[in-house]
Amino acid sequence: MDWSCLREADRDLLNSQVDMPAGIQESLRQRGVRLTRQRRLLLDLIDQSGLHLDAESLFRMAKERDAKLNRVTVYRTLKLLKEGGLVDELDLAHIQGDQHYYETRMKQEHAHIICLRCGRVEEFFGEELQHLRSQVSSQFGFEIVFARTEVAGYCAHCQVLRAQEAAGEPEPASTGR
Fold it and tell me: Structural domains in the chain?
């Protein structure tokens, strides 16, 4: 079929519909929730950005692709996706106060490694997390539904900066981080 008559954003959206994991579509369908164009756009942005997005950042990114989108739609959709178990709401060690961030639950279980100085967030995937989960389950006879692990501290770069500050040395020029 020739899609040349569609706007580029609509062609991208149509392509993403083909790529949308069946589990997400099925989960929404079972809850009687229609995956509208705007909901799909927001879910795609959360899933494919590679970032932990807050609602305002998500709104700005989505607005670039769909000028008709409004903040209310973003907040309602985030609530719907969260209640539907499709996205997790994270506080990421409160690096930005009470700010919340979102990521899809379609990822393998992982830990968030958060730098308290620069705010960088890394994701750690490993068998160690599964081992810890098994250990907690067996030791406490606990049925784990979900687990969130956050490790907060200072990345290597910020450790150097902190040491320099403690020694009274001037901070070097920014490295673009």
Answer: 1-107 (1.10.10.10), 109-177 (3.30.1490.190)
